[in-house]
Amino acid sequence: MEKAVVLLSGGLDSTTCMAVAAEKGFEIYPISFNYHQRHSIELDGAQKVAAFYNVKKHLIIETNMETIGGSALTDKAIDVPEGEVSRTDIPITYVPARNLIFLSYALGYAEVIGAHRIYIGVNSVDYSGYPDCRPEFIDHFQILADYSTKAAHKGERIEIMTPLQQLSKKDIILLAVRLKAPLELTHSCYKGGEKACGICDSCKLRLQGFQQAGIDDPVEYEIK
């Protein structure tokens, strides 16, 4: 069975991405990150999702991005915005270089375990304006990956897979439901409470997607 590394945050998109990799028959090796994020409760979701898929190993890497700061997700002095889900600017919830760092770890892990696929749930349709979710970023990271590992030197390409890249949030939810992904175990709220707040950008985008899909969101909200 071929192996695949899946970046698993514990949120809706990464869990759907995990379900896609599982459907394709890969032996899944999820990798999650404790980067001292405000919403660290998502790691509980990631562990539950990993257990749901009965993975052999769930790797959790600690990297203190709180030290860098500059984001509402890592600096508790910066409030999480309660704004609109559509925007053209880059929001304060952007974590500098996060996907670059995460994919670099995943690339190293894939090389060690002999995986030729890395799945990441980035999305460029219904997204929060993050530059490291764009197809251009993934394309350039792939070029970097093709020149930066022993595996690549031996002709063993490690491919970055982005199955959700061109899907709307509605379509991601419909895909997750079709694949029977455990959405009830996921956490998407940026504020990190036991219940999702229902008013941060991430909650609003998720709720909008469920509404458009005509499906009830299985997680609990403070405000819905």
TrEMBL record:
Pfam families: QueC (PF06508)
Pathway(s) per entry: Purine metabolism; 7-cyano-7-deazaguanine biosynthesis
EC class: ligase
Zinc among keywords: yes
Gene Ontology MF annotations: ligase activity
The enzyme's E.C. designation: 6.3.4.20
Note accompanying the cofactor annotation: Binds 1 zinc ion per subunit.
Cofactor: Zn(2+)
Residues binding Zn(2+), per UniProt: C189, C197, C200, C203
The keyword Metal-binding is annotated on this UniProt entry: yes
CDD domains named among the record's database cross-references: QueC-like
Keyword list, A-Z: ATP-binding, Ligase, Metal-binding, Nucleotide-binding, Queuosine biosynthesis, Zinc
Catalyzed chemical reaction(s): 7-carboxy-7-carbaguanine + NH4(+) + 2 ATP = 7-cyano-7-carbaguanine + 2 AMP + 2 diphosphate + 2 H(+)
Tree of life domain: Bacteria
SUPFAM superfamilies tied to this protein: Adenine nucleotide alpha hydrolases-like (SSF52402)
Protein residues bound to ATP: L8, S9, G10, G11, L12, D13, S14, T15, T16, C17, M18
Oligomeric form and interacting partners: Homodimer.
Role played: Catalyzes the ATP-dependent conversion of 7-carboxy-7-deazaguanine (CDG) to 7-cyano-7-deazaguanine (preQ(0)).
Alphabetical list of PANTHER family matching this protein: 7-CYANO-7-DEAZAGUANINE SYNTHASE
NCBIfam families: 7-cyano-7-deazaguanine synthase QueC (TIGR00364)
Record-stated family: Belongs to the QueC family.
Name this polypeptide is given: 7-cyano-7-deazaguanine synthase
Originating gene: queC
